[in-house]
Amino acid sequence: MAGNSFGEFFRITTFGESHGIGIGVVIDGCPSGISLCEDDFVTEMTRRRPGPDFFSTARREDDRVEILSGVFEGRTTGAPITLFIRNRDARSQPYEILREVFRPGHADYTYYKRYGCFDFKGGGRASARETASRVAAGVVARKVFEPFAISVVAYTLELGGIRAVNIDPGVIHTNPFRCPDTRVAAQMEEVVLKAKKDGDSVGGIVEIRVTGCPAGLGEPVFDKLDADLAKAVMSVGAVKGVEIGAGFEAARLRGSQNNDPITPKGFVTNHAGGILGGISNGDDIVVRVAVKPIPSIEREQETVDRKRRSARLRLSGRFDVTAVPRIVPVLEAMVVLVLADHRLRFKGQRAEEMQEHSGTHDMRYGV
Amino acid sequence: MAGNSFGEFFRITTFGESHGIGIGVVIDGCPSGISLCEDDFVTEMTRRRPGPDFFSTARREDDRVEILSGVFEGRTTGAPITLFIRNRDARSQPYEILREVFRPGHADYTYYKRYGCFDFKGGGRASARETASRVAAGVVARKVFEPFAISVVAYTLELGGIRAVNIDPGVIHTNPFRCPDTRVAAQMEEVVLKAKKDGDSVGGIVEIRVTGCPAGLGEPVFDKLDADLAKAVMSVGAVKGVEIGAGFEAARLRGSQNNDPITPKGFVTNHAGGILGGISNGDDIVVRVAVKPIPSIEREQETVDRKRRSARLRLSGRFDVTAVPRIVPVLEAMVVLVLADHRLRFKGQRAEEMQEHSGTHDMRYGV
Amino acid sequence: MAGNSFGEFFRITTFGESHGIGIGVVIDGCPSGISLCEDDFVTEMTRRRPGPDFFSTARREDDRVEILSGVFEGRTTGAPITLFIRNRDARSQPYEILREVFRPGHADYTYYKRYGCFDFKGGGRASARETASRVAAGVVARKVFEPFAISVVAYTLELGGIRAVNIDPGVIHTNPFRCPDTRVAAQMEEVVLKAKKDGDSVGGIVEIRVTGCPAGLGEPVFDKLDADLAKAVMSVGAVKGVEIGAGFEAARLRGSQNNDPITPKGFVTNHAGGILGGISNGDDIVVRVAVKPIPSIEREQETVDRKRRSARLRLSGRFDVTAVPRIVPVLEAMVVLVLADHRLRFKGQRAEEMQEHSGTHDMRYGV
Amino acid sequence: MAGNSFGEFFRITTFGESHGIGIGVVIDGCPSGISLCEDDFVTEMTRRRPGPDFFSTARREDDRVEILSGVFEGRTTGAPITLFIRNRDARSQPYEILREVFRPGHADYTYYKRYGCFDFKGGGRASARETASRVAAGVVARKVFEPFAISVVAYTLELGGIRAVNIDPGVIHTNPFRCPDTRVAAQMEEVVLKAKKDGDSVGGIVEIRVTGCPAGLGEPVFDKLDADLAKAVMSVGAVKGVEIGAGFEAARLRGSQNNDPITPKGFVTNHAGGILGGISNGDDIVVRVAVKPIPSIEREQETVDRKRRSARLRLSGRFDVTAVPRIVPVLEAMVVLVLADHRLRFKGQRAEEMQEHSGTHDMRYGV
């Protein structure tokens, strides 16, 4: 109810603040019998963590995931899985000034209006740090898919106005921007360096592509697969837009252009982005997400304090120039979570499966 | 769970099919004491209904809303409110061919994969007719706001690639396209007539603007106001994209451009679209929605049948050239539903309100 | 949220008032492909309906169930199923006096405190008539089980202090009290006739027995099968207690007596009532429910009016002497609804099933 | 969905196993601005903890509650509150035998059927240790009430067949049985000592009494206050029955006896147990709960192993003779959680409150 849970059947609840003891997530509804250990999280957590690159924060986030519950002798038991990530480097001094003054573009003001108080140290729940919980949960959700060989890959399609042209998933990991186009990645570097020099920040667009998703996932009417995907990605801080398949471009096509012809071998085009009527059609699911520039910039800004008095704010410290590369694994995780949830929801609703099941699986005790 | 409900506290459940007995909605969680009668629905239902215009279907939808429950002596009682709209003109002949052949761009194929069956008469639940239930529910949701003087207005920002330039809410109702720019409306008419002549259809973009919304609505982390708005509008058939405030354009701005400065009189700009950190900031909430062209066109299309055999499909009948004007009140209703739900959710979470309340309102029986 | 829905996966939402247009239920989450027609409801609705017996109301409730949605060509489609039962004989005169005066033992006073208003005609939502919706939903829920041959049978174990001794399910339908002991049924008749003569009413105890339920249904920790059963039956008006298996008697046993020994052939005893740790163990599930005497009696009672002024109330009309026989099919339905919901929930949570499934069922489109 | 959450608006999710790292709970929906620190939990956690008495386990449970999130500068922020209790004394040797053999009366067998695996060390989620999370959450829930001066008190009404006669809340804490009748407490001691000598265990009945609860809490139809209370207490392991007010005795009363007359000063009697039509009536809420004897006994028992082979099991160790005194604070906590949830739910549903609110509270930013 209070908004810190997501998913119906594969349900996560995140908790924790940027500058508190740590952050974490409880996963309820994960099937039993899945192998899981703390090392499983290292790769994804490292992807989300700021690297040693010029464009990321100095803050060191070790982000080691502890499994507090739900795993017994190396396998999930069906009990809630709790993952916890301690905050190791939460220096509170730089933020003292923010006790009174609202940062433009941040949630300081709205949290204050909502709750009558505000955890000004690093933004509390509104901090990007919260997304580490989502990435950790995504690692577990991805395991629910393993039998299906579904691939979910995200990358930086556009950064600071520079857009990738040739999409090669193989090179995403070879540049710090997670750009699938090596040549364009070099141009992105220039844009970022320029913004950094100006004490400014840039935004961009992330594309997520799901390959191998079976047809039939999604629920009419409100829990359509695309509706849940839209909510999932829009719930990530800094996201301001989402589109599926042809997206906003579809608004400019005619029906005869936008309809994807169907042949015995599959769909000829994919303007639908893999979803029709809110249900996956077996083709690639394509989601694009607009990410705004980071609001923390090293320039003086006009704002007010808690008493609505005019104030000038100049933040100092080392800020990221862009959140886009770090948000890539977060958006991937959100898509994975939606798919895991709908996969489990799918199972309950076909009578024929139930009948098959009743014949082949003896749930009854006795002779 | 099965996806036909929306909202947590102000919760609607829609039901009914395009060519069945009728469609309807149960609203659970509406406060008691609100005046409500069947006439309250006439204006909005008429707005959603196809008019006598050249671009709409011949099908006559009277769309009279019956109140089946929840109102006693002219006021809501707190009990579930059931609204029912009978189908009056459900001719089934033209659809017989669709028993076997999937229509491109429609949900026929995905429903078949999801449920193992498909109500091919008019699309069943996937029909645009389902949205009448949402509009009816929106009428009730709007009443929850009345004490607040919140205004929610939607209009056709773009149609067939033609975009409104000067936004004048006063003229929305003066043209059949619900375009807020009279001059542009004339150009839209040309585009639509041309598409009609070609047996084709066009899409567009709807903008919804909320004025007067108090700051503080929305829940972190997953039930952010923008996340719920994104889900709400994306759950409407034909919607392929959504953006808040500057939206995809924000991805191309720098932080110094995108941040909205705050002054004692309010925000100087509104790139945020009225929402920061998932919570309303008191400024106008601005949502834009991409609507694809109607997939039913009078042109032969390539498809398959239930046995995946190649087929050619040529639909005949009188189809709408565009869904955009009719979707305007539907999207308005979805935004209203989200706001009503968050308004009620807000009330439960500030301790100070609780304390005030405990002093001023005697809930206890006795002397 | 507002409390008119029940179940997670097989979810029902009831609506309607005793003296309004009618009552009904929306079932969301029913699997597709199940045969369903209006005649399927006749038997159960007749069981709940007051018969021509001396102990039931004169009010004629035809209780014909209309299917408003969710069935296409004789089978469920996966869409929400709406069932509607019109009120045919809602005379409102006798209730006018209740506009001001609260009936003792009824919900008049508490609804007034809760909502600030009260549908005094027949009790509105608090009327026993609401249970007809539950019985109708139970008919659908029972169909979800058909592959499993689970039997759910309820009967009057005790009435007006007279308790059945020899339980013979075969005779339940042969007496108006739904007593499984013919000899005791005769004594019940005497008790009821005596109470009737006194213008009074009697309560009783209903026992529900589930045979053939597979082991493994139920969720720890809060959604235990017995916890959900307790809520289900306690949500029926007039119910004041519930026990599982040995129930309150277990509180007086020693562990060595209460533990049910397990053998290769099954459990030796069934003090557990078929549930251990909140999960079904394959043995018979046994639930007993205490039903209070009907509060509407033909005797003068002490009460107050809406202004808390002292009042004397003497209801006239023909009232039931007892609700117990009519509540029997209602409680049966509630148990069936819980089992259907947990059956569907079970399916999502065993990884092994998922893997089997991924191999045997091709959800993917393409070559 | 998977059953580890409870409550709608004040929602808790518990996690952790008896012999894992620890147990805990996430509370989502707690209002902001409430003072909370780790010392607040000491009293209640100590009450639940086994004391130095002869009838409790040797296991030392320090049960120190750590606040992992949701509190900033000593007050709740509206963010999820996470409470964690480390397991300090989890010796695993004695349980190795239970890897193969199911304990009668425990959840070993049913968990195995449900999940295909079983955390045999101390019962995993099925352990009584899980209830510590509930008690901790109850401490927070109780704070939500503070403005209302509601008192929730539980005690041992009956133990091993011995029932308290004179109820004096003042003496509950003066004897290890939490019996409100000092004279009867002495008899309870005898019964317990005798059972202990026999290597056996005893059950009992706990009564919970809520004083000062305002009228108007509870939701029709399914989320009745008594229905939610029934679920809440039945979800605690070892509970086999629940009754409200006169409970099972009401089934033997006539309507004229059971109806509580209403006078300008309040209800004359309280057979209703403070709840009418599922909504609190302002009188004391009275709940009685049947607790079965602890299934772990020092006597040889008949059972089977995972291959359904016959086995004899003789548990050794030091077991509690009864769970009743320790379950008292757990049941109190469950009742408190239900009341907190319904208190918050109440707030959203009266239009008049909304209107008052809109006038007195300026949520809008600007001039």
Summary keywords:
five-stranded antiparallel beta sheet; disordered C terminus; homotetramer; 367 residues; 21% strand
Question: How would you describe what is shown here?
Answer:
- 4 copies of one chain form a homotetramer.
- Chain A has helices at 42-48, 108-115, 131-145, 182-197, 225-234, 255-258, 324-347, 351-360; strands at residues 5-6, 11-16, 22-28, 65-69, 71-72, 75-76, 81-86, 151-159, 162-163, 204-211, 239-244, 262-263, 266-267, 275-276, 279-280, 285-291, 301-304, 310-313.
- Chain A is α+β, with helices and mostly antiparallel strands and 367 residues long.
- In chain A, the strands form 6 sheets. Chain A has a 5-stranded antiparallel beta sheet with strand order 1-2-3-7-4, with helices on one face.
- In chain A, helix 3 (131-145) packs across helix 7 (324-347) and helix 5 packs antiparallel against helix 7.
- Chain A starts with a strand and ends in a 7-residue tail after the last helix.
- The model of chain A is unreliable at 351-367 (pLDDT under 50).
- The interface between B and D is large, with 44 and 45 residues.
- Strand 11 (239-244) of chain A pairs antiparallel with strand 11 (239-244) of chain B.
